[in-house]
Amino acid sequence: MGFLLPLSLLVLLAATYSEGGSARRHRAAWAQRPGRGSFPAPSETTAPFWVSISPKLMTVAPGSSVWLNCSSNCPLLESPILHSGLRSGQTLSGPNWVSFQLLDVRTWSSDVHCFVTCAGVTRGATARINAYRPQSVILEPPVLEGSEHTLRCHVTHVFPVGFLVVTLRRGGRVIYSESLERFTGLDLANVTLTYAFPARPNDLGQLVTCHAHLNLDGLVVHSSSAPMPLSFLTWSTKSKALVSTSIAALVGILLAVGAACLRKYRLMQSRA
């Protein structure tokens, strides 16, 4: 009897453990089934979407107004946001796009950013607006004053002035160049460059030109003047006045001598 009682207890415990394990496995399988009392985890939106802004690069005259279009293929498009340092104007919108107006562009280079948020994800696109004015270059005829040639070059309606470089050439070789980077104004400007250099005998007939360059971070705008010849017969205003006075004095002397000779001739004729 003492041996049978422990053995019966072991059989009973084994049966109980087997039933409990089956019940736990049954409950675990039931919990994994969709339906009653449980729901699948929500799936995250991972589909890619694009954002576009157009045009991506614009070149306008200073003071102009422009339109930029921001669009996306996001099916749940939130309102696009535009970031720029320019003044905003009107806004137009349609399915998956918004057009923004920017007013009075006077910064020579501006980056404009359009941001779109779709299903909690934000993406953006960037456009650039360059503002500049092609310049007109006029070179006055060279002036010879004393032993120096003087060149005077006019560059008109320049913007932005701080990026202008003016160069003078004689016979295709640079004789002088000046950068105006010290000027920071945001308005159109007229620039006059005056340069004097010693006259040489072999300068006669040499062509001189004036060139203006705007270097806008890789965008180079170039203008040049019509060529002008150097000549020793080209005088300054003072030289011309001196020559005119000398000629007038010479004419006066010749007239006086002529009149005296005429009187002497008449006197000799009367005595004869």
Helices and strands, in N-to-C order?
HEEEEEEEEEEEEEEEEEH
Percent helix, as a range, is 10-25%
Major beta-sheet overview: 5 strands, antiparallel
Hey, roughly how much beta strand do the residues contain? 35-45%
Which spans of ≥5 residues are poorly predicted at pLDDT below 50? 1-46
**What's the tally of helices?**
2
Computed CA radius of gyration, to the nearest angstrom: 45 Å
For the secondary structure, the number of strands is: 17
| Backbone shape | rod-shaped
Q: Report, as a whole number of angstroms, the end-to-end distance.
A: 198 Å
Q: Structural class of the secondary structure composition?
A: alpha+beta
Kindly state the mean pLDDT as a whole number?
77
Task: Describe the overall structure.
The protein is α+β, with helices and mostly antiparallel strands and 272 residues long. The protein has 2 helices and 17 strands. The strands form 4 sheets. Strands 12, 13, 15, 16 and 17 form a 5-stranded antiparallel β-sheet that branches. A hairpin with a 2-residue loop joins strand 10 and strand 11 (148-158). The longest helix is centred in the last third of the chain and has 35 residues, at 237-271. It is rod-shaped, with a radius of gyration of 45 Å. Residues 1-46 have low confidence and may be disordered.
